[in-house]
Amino acid sequence: MYAVVLHQFTEMLKSLDKQLTKAEAYAEERKFDVNNLVQARLFADQFPLVKQVQTACDNVKLCTARMTGTTAPKHEDNEATFPELHARIASTLAFVEETLRTADFSGVEAVEVRFPWLPGMHLSGPNYFHQFAIPNIYFHLTTAYAILRANGVPLGKADFMGQVSFVPDQA
After folding, report:
1. Is the pLDDT of residue 163 over 90?
2. Between 3.50.50.60, 3.10.620.30, 3.30.1440.10, 1.20.120.450, what CATH number should domain 2-161 receive?
3. Please, what's the b/e burial string for 64-96 (b: 16 or more CB within 10 A of its CB; e: otherwise)?
4. What is the DSSP string of 73-118?
5. Section 70-80 average pLDDT
6. Which residue ranges make up each domain of the chain?
7. Across all residues in the chain, what is the average pLDDT?
8. In sequence order, what are the residues at sequence separation of 6 or more whose Cβ sits closer than 8 angstroms to the Cβ of residue 57?
9. For the chain, what is the total number of helices (H) and then of strands (E)?
10. Which of 27, 37, 38, 44 is most buried, most CB within 10 Å of its CB?
11. Computed over its alpha carbons, how large is the radius of gyration of the chain?
C-alpha cells in the first residue's frame, strides 16, 4: 500500500511540474518575467512558491527514505528560477522512481520516525505516513497551486489532480 501511495506522490509532483510550465506560458503570454512568481506568496507569513516546491519535494523524498531506510538526496535549497524548480522536481522524481521498489517498503510497521526538533519522541511508520507525510505533502502541493492561481495562472482542478486512470466499464 505504501508504495502505491508514494507513486501517487510522484504523480502529484509531475502535476506540479506541469503547473509551473503553465505559469511559464502564462507569463510569456502576458509579457512578464515568470521568475517574479518564485517569491510570490498567499500571505506575508507563509512560504513563497519556491519554498512550497522545495518542501513538497523534500517531503516526498524524505517520506520514501524514512519508510525504506534509504538516504534521500540532499538539495541546497538555492533555487531562484523556474528552470531550477523544474530541476528540483526532476531530481526528486529520479530518486523515488529510479531508486525504490515495492519490496523496499516491507517492514514499514516497525519503522520509528524521529525528528531532531522533537527529541525523545517518535512516530511509528504507519502513523508518520498517515498523520504527518500525507497531509504535509498535500498542504504544500495545494499551497503552490493556490499561489499560482492567485497570481492569475489559468489552472483548474484537473491541473492539480493530474492523470486520473479511468477505465471503461465492461459491456
Report:
1. no
2. 1.20.120.450
3. bbbbbeeebeeeeeebeebeebbebbeebbebb
4. PP------SHHHHHHHHHHHHHHHHHH--GGGGTTGGG-EE--TTS
5. 95
6. 2-161
7. 93
8. 13, 75, 88, 89, 91, 92
9. 6, 2
10. 37
11. 17
